[in-house]
Amino acid sequence: MTQAVYTPEALERGRLLFLRPFTFVKGCVRIADLPPMDRLEIAFAGRSNVGKSSLINALAGTSALARTSNTPGRTQELNIFEAYSEPLRIVDMPGYGFAQAPKPKVEAWTRLIHAYLTGRATLRRVYVLVDARHGPKANDLSVMNELDGAAVSYQIVLTKADKPGHAELARIIAETEAAVAKRPAAHPRVMLTSSEKGTGIAELRAEIGALLDHAGVMQPG
Predict the structure, then answer these.
(1) Residues 6 or more apart from 105 whose CB is under 8 A from it?
(2) Which of 23, 17, 50 is nearest to 35 (CA)?
(3) Model pTM?
(4) How many angstroms separate the CA atoms of 148 and 92, rounded?
(5) 56-90 pLDDT tens trace
(6) Which residue intervals define the domain EngB-type G in the entry (predicted)?
(7) Architecture per CATH, 8-213
């Protein structure tokens, strides 16, 4: 894995973006509940307990924005967060791969996620979170297939990168890069993060800041 080099300006842009307060807007259980498509959206997807809420909190520099839980499947809605005075919306998606949830609920989440991914013109990128201890699993690959099919740009973010040893982490990184190498909608750069240690948070903020600066979407009213 070749570590990307971010300019001081890009890192500062990302820092300032997430220095602004983010607020929870609402949880959506139906597409009709979603806010208007009036600003750039990024979404976080991943298996249950992969650390989506922890990563969102780390990006925002708080422990209280997104609810975290050790109970898989707690996020059961599209949870919407918006930045103050920036045209950016963050969507925390329900975790997938939690087999113990009731089947009708899992099916409802699946329909909601599919409808969201294929119907939001302002969705600029999905960050697909993958546990760095395990690498991409079958349902991660299924989500990637859906994103490729819908032509929705996505980028793999390895979470909990402080947990595996150096050699094991190198193996997982190589495996993950190989998994995305020929996928049409995948960003070629795999991000490496640890919400606990702060690894990769500044770089991910810089990536999001660059997306926002090149978006050309409507300013929030």
Answers:
(1) 76
(2) 23
(3) 0.90
(4) 20
(5) 999 999 877 876 544 444 557 899 999 988 999 99
(6) 38-214
(7) 3-Layer(aba) Sandwich (3.40)
